[in-house]
Amino acid sequence: MFSYKNRSLFVLLIALIVLCEQCNAYLPGLAKTYKANQNYTIQVNKITSVHTQIPYEYYKLPVCQPDKKDYESENLGEILLGDVIESSLFREQPCTVINGYQDTKCEPILTADQTKTLQDRIKQGYRAHWLFDGLPARQSELEAHQPGFDIGFVGRDGQEGIFVNNHFKIVIHYHQAPGADDYNVVGFVVEPSSVEYTGASPKGYEKDLNCPASTDGSQIVDKDSFILWTYSVTFQKSETRWEKRWDTYLKPNEQSVRFHWFSILNSLMIVFFLTVMVALIMMRTLKADFRKYNSIDASDEPEETGWKMIHGDVFRPPTHPMILSVLVGSGVQVFAMTIITMLFAILGFLSPANIGSLQTSLVVLFVIMAMFAGYFSTRAYVSFKGTNWKRNTINTAFGFPGFIFFIFFIINMMLRGYGSSAAIPFTTFLSLIAMWFGISVPLAFTGSYFAFKKPVPQDPVRTNQIPRQIPDQIWYMKPALSILMGAILPFGAVFIELYFILSAVWDNQLYYIFGFLFIVLIILVVTSAEITIVMCYFQLCAEDYHWWWRSFLTSGASALFMFLYFIYFFKHLQITKFVSIMLYFGYSLIMASTFFVMTGAIGFYACHWFVRKIYSSIHIN
């Protein structure tokens, strides 16, 4: 029998193995070379729609598929995104009829169920996603920021009905160095069209792979209709080098760049005025207070006023100290995860060529940063004079991660009910559980143990046994109103960039302008810290010493405005299905919650530093 220590080490080892399996998301891609007339395979991935937000496997459509499909191994991020990368039948160069392949599962005559499935997907605006050499297919040169192509359309050019795009003109852009025999793929375009072939029937095309003559009509989707699936491949030489091939996909347009700079300048103005206000408080008002308090002889016993009057209560522990310490620790965990992810992205480790690398990094780093959650949560708890640090650590390890996991579990059950490819399989679900219990929880206890062993910092002033009464506050210093007023500024620093993030997430677009995002993140940190210090100073001057929770909520309440913005943004989306609405608000709740604990922790520590600084700079009688 294993001892308790051996069992713990065994579980930790298994969890580390699961974690290391996800590390392939950080490996940079290497340039592949192809030779002329070399056999190649285009990969199919998934289909997505901005109307439903529910991805499906590409071969859930009634299309031709190989008898034996080769699946590409996926990292955690790809699984969460619903990517299912499989081999396809697209290999030859001339115009080819896929139905004639001998190694093909293909039902050219649609059944009633297949007809309904295809019609529903076309009406819901689904787009197909293919890959070649790691590049996502795009429908045209002008749609680089929105990968994929339409699988069909409803009525066009005077034609009524539902039509399927059954012919694919595949254009592969390649770069070939002078004198070289091989080439690199630098572009992948799929131009779909709906073609009605003359005299198309189930017979006569089993062995003939040449495209028959076509009419000017489009291929309608109807029960018992016969559909020929065809494609052609052409190669176009390009001057774009392999290392620059993603520029077409990721280069923002001029209007987008102007909006980003406007967002940054807007945020910088907020930071400038806040910095001036904090400087005035620190350099003029506080210096005047220090001179007044420190120049008075103790025997004079003057009447104390302002923030010095509450020195005997300012470090009194807050109500519900364990809840506050858990939130603070979780906020530090999210903040550390965000900063490291941004650094990885800026350095190029999260290349879009590695699909799902960003999502994988967020999950992996969140698990690892549990050590910071345990450490800072326990440090805050013992500073609140708490004694049950083990229970506090358990709440930290399971509280906020459990809340996120519960919402994700509900979302996953909905996706599974609709047969979506984004529903994670049971083995992946067990991997997430192993990472949580085998890595995150032990790391949280490790950080908490080191924090508990570290000496508790002494307060600069003594706390009175009997709390003093707080005078009536002026209307604008009421807790709810002052918190909401302070929370507007951190949200105002990010709301423009938030629009681009939401557009990329819910409109299935590529987002890779992490340089702008990192600048906005730094501005958010500075804004949250400074507005909390300003509001904390006003609160202390009003002789209100309940600043612990107020410091966390002043900046953390910006998540409320973020969630309200999510509701406003929802009106601009084209989501119609009830389950899609639940998915949207479920993920929005996760985003707002992480933003709440992160900004709250920033405000808490900024105010904590400020309060300790000012009360350690005066002489208390």
UniProtKB/TrEMBL annotation:
One BP term from GO: protein localization to membrane
Coiled-coil positions: none
Highest taxon listed in the record's lineage: Eukaryota
Signal peptide: 1-25
Keywords: Membrane, Signal, Transmembrane, Transmembrane helix
Transmembrane residue ranges: 259-282, 323-350, 362-382, 394-415, 427-452, 483-506, 512-540, 552-570, 582-611
Main location as per UniProt: membrane
InterPro entries for the chain: EMP70
UniProt subcellular location: Membrane
One of the Pfam families matching this protein, by short name: EMP70
Protein's membrane topology: Multi-pass membrane protein
GO cellular component, one term: membrane
Family: Belongs to the nonaspanin (TM9SF) (TC 9.A.2) family.
Name of the molecule in the record: Transmembrane 9 superfamily member
Gene that encodes the chain: phg1a
